[in-house]
Every structure is written in structure tokens, then in C-alpha cells.
Design a protein that fits this description.
The complex is a heterodimer of chains A (about 350) and B (about 200).
Chain A lengths: L2 H6 L1 H24 L3 H16 L6 H8 L5 E2 L13 H34 L12 E3 L3 H30 L1 H37 L9 H7 L17 H25 L7 H29 L6 H6 L2 E3 H7 L1 H9 L19
Antiparallel strand pairs in A: 2-3
Helix pairs in contact in A: 5-10, 6-7, 7-9, 9-10, 12-13
Chain B lengths: L3 E5 L9 H10 L9 E5 L7 E5 L8 H5 L5 E3 L5 E3 L9 H5 L35 H7 L11 H5 L5 E5 H15 L8 H5 L4
Antiparallel strand pairs in B: 1-6, 2-3, 4-5
Bound molecules: iron/sulfur cluster (2 copies).
One iron/sulfur cluster binds next to helix 3 of chain B.
Chain lengths: ~350, ~200
């Protein structure tokens, strides 16, 4: 496929779609940042309270108390000298408010959008199945993918249970039933988190080389990946969308893992404020990544015929590779049948021809 | 129906920790858990102030709002209680509570905390009043016996008041009037969204 052909058509068509995508991005970022405004609000409210009380000679004590200045107490333990920790109120409002509701809107919105896309437009069909295959994902990569994927899904279900279960599951399962589930889900979430982290780290390191942005990625973004006009922008082993997804996992994954670390180790002496912030970061990070994963699952299955084969058998059809990853296919062909990975698999591609 | 409240008069509290001891003894509170504590500000400096604090049994309780398993309930007397059979020990109530009331028997890696424990206003929990199970899990139920919380009953200076919010406020107001000071009904604004 010539590049000019691909470039010419979508320029006009995509303006509206582009505006739509941009506004979706702005909303998503807004949803992430908006909750933090609560902290600003709390700080200014506190400042106002202070001014109002300056006339009172006793005010100094109570101001200190409100600011969480620790006094002396015979009771040992963490933060026992603090009479009032005001951050909890902000945390409550942020967590029960935007994190819970905007999070739901974001995840459910993505699922609805994908369903609408599938129904109205449908996923990309495999235009021409050649019957010859190329090795795309060696065994190690596939095991790594499914290992991390399965853990992610378990963590997402158990984690979302704690966030939404009170509203979504208690009415169905009853308080006892849900508590029994939550009592199981919490330790599962806590322990599996470690195994997931390991998988994520290996994945990020192993697939880094596929995900460095290159010149042709600009073109891919310009054509919006060809999702809306059916064009095929040039792409190497990973297209620009997949690279963006990778970097979202790097950033989001780091936020989730780092904040989760705090929540996982109350014995290390993190104070309440740290836990409150960690919980909010953990929630927002997870919801953003879960939303992205929904899109990823769609694009890896219904959204792109022929893609799933690569993650199941390791081999993709040459037709699929040409359609979606033309530069990678050229590369593979140039280097004989060594499959994009640089490691020889011992299995030559046109085996099933 | 009475609306139960605590009030600690910081002009009277002498930091004797009698309330803390009374509570620990009455309810056989496990090692490491303190349902009540006394905090002294500017300790050792003339004019130091002490306050005894436990769960304030908040109106619109933050702990209850964030609990993933929704295990809190407010009694007709306005006492905030919780069900340890449902609690998963997630720590959220502790993060949300302004007064640091929720306590955990353990604090280990992997978020292992055990069931949350806190002041019950001497009103036990969900099991039958003063049943073995209730005493074991929540401590004695003095309210069911028509008694008020032991911490306040034992307070040597009557700094700590517990009981019907209106009566507590009346007693305190009378004191303020005699003293000619301004009210410092500690924690009321936060817990009940009102002052004396
Ligand atoms: S003082 Fe803390 S534990 Fe008690 S009702 Fe208020 S928020 Fe809940
Ligand atoms: S520790 Fe227990 S009572 Fe507290 S929020 Fe978690 S489940 Fe609810």
C-alpha cells in the first residue's frame, strides 16, 4: 500500500473524529485531576477558619489541634498524639465521590463506546488471509502476557469489589454474602499484587524495544489508526496505538504498584495522610488502566480479526501482518524468517501454507 | 429518643488516664488496642491542655461512609456501632475517622490488620445484649443495663461527660457561665456539626 494513498483520504473526515477524541482525552484527564481539587479546597477552608478565630486567646490550641499537631499521650502507637486528622474528610469525599462515580462513568462509558463501535462499524476484518504465517510472539512472551493478564483481571475484579461492591453487590448478595466475598477478595488482592507486579516489570522491560516511538507513528496518529476510515497507516512491530498503550501501562502501572505498596504495608508506619493519598492514586490509576485494558481486550479480539491468533499460537497470518504491521513484515522478510524478535525460533513461517 | 454524645471539658481534664484504664478494664480490650486515649497539648508548659478522646459517635459518620462492606450502623441513641463479623480489616474507617478511633489488633505486612475495634459507647454490638459473644467481641453493654459509659462515670474531675447530648450541653453551658469563658466543646463541630 502506498503511503500517499493512505494519507490523502482521511484528512477531512478525521477532523470531527479528532475533535471528539481530543475532548474525550480532556474529559479523561479532567476526571483524573478534578478530585485533587478537594485538597486545595480543604486547605483554603482551613485558612479561613484560622482567620475567624484570631480574636480568641484560646484559639492557638484549637488551631493546632485542627492542623493535626501532635501532643503527648501515654498511649503508645502511631499518631496517637494527634487529636484530629482532617484529611480523612477530604479523602472520604474524593473516594466516595469522583473516584467512585467518575470511575464508573469512565469504565462503563468505554465498554458502551466499544459495543457501539462494534455494532455500528465493526472491527477490522482480515482482508486477505494468505495461509502463510509469521512468528510474532514467542512462547515466553505469550506466557508472560497471559500470566499478567489473568492476574490483572483477578486484581481488577477483587479491587473493584471493594470500591463498588457496596453499591453493586450488597443489594444482590446481601451484607453477609458480600462480606464473605470481600473477606476472600481482600487477601487475594493483597497477595496476588506481588505476582502481578513481577509480571508487569518483566513485561515492561522485555517489550520496551518494541515501544519506542518512531517517525511513522505520527502518521498513525494522524489517521487515528485507520479505525474510522479503514485506512492502514504504516506500523512496525507495534503500531503507535499499541505504543501509547504500553506507555500508559508503564505510567499507570507504576502509580498503581507504588501506591499499592503503601496500602499493602501498614506495618511500615506510613501515616494516615500517606494512606489517604495512596488510596486515591491507587483508585484513579487502576480505573484509568482498567479502562484502557477494556479497549485493549476489544482490539485484540473482535476489534481486529487475526490478532488473537498471535497471542494464542504465536503465529499471525502474513495477510494480517501486512495489513496492520507492514514495516515489521518487511523487516521479517528481509531477515529471512527470523520473526521480529531477533531470536531464532527454529520454526519457519510459511509452515502451514 | 436521647442522642448520646461525649464531651471533654479541657479546663477540667487533669490527664490522670482514669478513663483509659476504666475502659480497658471494663471491656477487657486486647493488648495494643486503646479505645480511649488522653492527649496533652503543650505538655509541661504552663496552661497545658488535656483532652480525652475516643470515638465521638459522629452524626454522618465518615467511618461508616467509606466502609466497603457497610458494616456500621447507628443505634436509635445515635451510637455508632459496627459488626465485626462483616469487617474485613481494610483500614478505611481508620483513614476516614478524624479522631483516630478505629483500632486494629494487629498491624502486619500485606495489609493484615484483623477486625477493627473501637469505642462502643459501652453499647456492645450486634449480638444479644451482654451475651458471651457480645462481651467477647465488643465488651460489656452498659447501655442495655441503663448505665452510662464507664470512662465518664469514673472521671475524677467530671471533665469527661457522656450521655444525652442536650443534658451534656446544659451541664457544660452552666460551667461556662460560671467561669465566664467561651465554650470549647472539643470535637463537637467535627463530630456533630454543631457546638454547645
Ligand atoms: S469518631 Fe471516628 S469511628 Fe467514631 S463515629 Fe466518628 S468517624 Fe466513626
Ligand atoms: S476496617 Fe472493617 S469496619 Fe473499617 S472500613 Fe474496613 S471493613 Fe469497614
Amino acid at each position: 500500500m502506498s503511503e500517499s494513498q493512505a494519507r490523502g483520504k482521511p484528512a477531512k473526515l478525521s477532523r470531527r473524529v479528532k475533535a471528539m477524541l481530543w475532548s474525550m482525552l480532556v474529559i479523561a484527564v479532567g476526571a483524573m485531576v478534578a478530585p485533587l481539587a478537594g485538597y486545595v479546597y480543604a486547605a483554603s477552608a482551613q485558612a479561613q477558619e484560622q482567620k475567624a478565630e484570631e480574636a480568641n486567646p484560646r484559639a492557638e490550641y484549637w488551631r493546632e489541634v485542627r492542623q493535626g499537631t501532635a501532643g503527648y499521650t501515654a498511649v503508645t502507637g502511631q499518631e496517637t498524639g494527634v487529636l484530629v486528622q482532617s484529611g480523612g474528610q477530604v479523602w472520604r469525599e474524593v473516594r466516595n465521590g469522583p473516584v467512585t462515580t467518575l470511575g464508573a462513568i469512565m469504565v462503563v462509558g468505554m465498554i458502551v463506546a466499544l459495543v457501539v463501535f462494534q455494532v455500528t462499524k465493526g472491527g477490522a476484518k482480515l482482508e486477505h488471509r494468505t495461509g502463510r504465517t509469521v512468528l510474532r510472539w514467542p512462547m515466553f512472551d505469550r506466557v508472560l502476557h497471559w500470566y499478567t493478564a489473568i492476574l490483572f483481571i483477578i486484581l481488577a475484579i477483587t479491587g473493584l469489589s471493594l470500591l463498588w461492591g457496596r453499591y453493586a453487590l450488597i443489594p444482590i448478595m446481601g451484607a453477609e454474602g458480600f462480606a464473605a466475598w470481600a473477606n476472600f477478595a481482600k487477601p487475594v488482592h493483597d497477595y496476588l499484587a506481588l505476582f502481578f507486579t513481577a509480571g508487569l516489570v518483566v513485561m515492561v522491560v522485555k517489550w520496551f524495544k518494541h515501544n519506542v516511538f518512531e517517525a511513522q507513528d505520527r502518521q498513525w496518529f494522524k489517521q487515528l489508526g485507520g479505525f474510522f476510515d479503514g485506512s492502514h497507516p504504516p506500523a512496525g512491530f507495534c503500531n503507535a496505538g499499541e505504543k501509547a498503550y504500553y506507555w500508559l501501562l508503564v505510567v499507570g502501572g507504576f502509580a498503581i504498584v507504588a501506591s499499592g505498596f503503601f496500602l499493602l504495608f501498614p506495618n511500615l508506619g506510613f501515616e494516615r495522610e500517606a494512606m489517604q493519598i495512596a488510596n486515591v492514586v491507587h483508585g484513579i490509576g487502576s480505573l484509568v488502566v482498567i479502562t484502557a485494558v477494556c479497549a485493549h481486550i476489544y482490539l485484540g479480539t473482535l476489534g481486529s480479526e487475526g490478532a488473537l491468533e498471535g497471542m494464542v499460537s504465536g503465529e499471525v497470518d502474513e495477510g494480517w501482518a501486512k495489513q496492520h504491521h507492514n514495516l515489521w513484515l518487511d523487516e521479517v522478510k528481509k531477515h529471512g524468517q527470523a520473526h521480529g524478535e531477533g531470536e531464532s525460533s527454529g520454526r519457519s513461517a510459511p509452515a502451514s501454507a | 429518643m436521647a442522642r448520646m454524645k461525649f464531651l471533654c471539658d479541657s479546663e477540667r481534664c487533669i490527664e490522670c488516664n482514669g478513663c483509659v484504664t476504666a475502659c480497658k478494664n471494663e471491656h477487657d480490650v486486647p493488648w495494643g488496642v486503646n479505645r480511649r486515649r488522653v492527649v496533652t497539648l503543650e505538655d509541661g508548659v504552663p496552661g497545658e491542655k488535656s483532652i480525652s478522646v475516643a470515638c465521638m459517635h459522629c452524626t454522618d459518620a465518615p467511618c461508616s461512609a467509606v466502609c466497603p462492606v457497610d458494616c456500621f450502623y447507628t443505634t436509635d441513641d445515635g451510637i455508632v456501632l459496627h459488626d465485626k463479623d462483616l469487617c474485613i480489616g481494610c483500614g478505611y474507617c481508620f483513614y476516614a475517622c478524624p479522631f483516630g478511633a478505629p483500632q486494629y489488633p494487629q498491624k502486619e505486612a500485606f495489609g493484615v490488620r484483623g477486625k477493627m475495634d473501637k469505642c462502643t459507647f459501652c453499647a456492645g454490638g450486634p449480638p444479644a445484649d451482654n451475651s458471651e459473644q457480645e462481651i467477647e467481641k465488643y465488651g460489656r453493654n452498659r447501655i442495655a443495663e441503663g448505665k452510662l459509659p464507664l470512662c465518664a462515670e469514673m472521671c475524677s474531675t467530671k471533665a469527661l461527660l457522656a450521655g444525652d447530648g442536650d443534658m451534656v450541653a446544659d451541664i457544660y453551658r452552666e460551667r461556662i457561665m460560671k467561669r465566664g469563658t467561651r465554650p470549647q466543646s472539643w470535637g463537637w463541630e467535627k463530630a456533630y456539626q454543631e457546638d454547645v
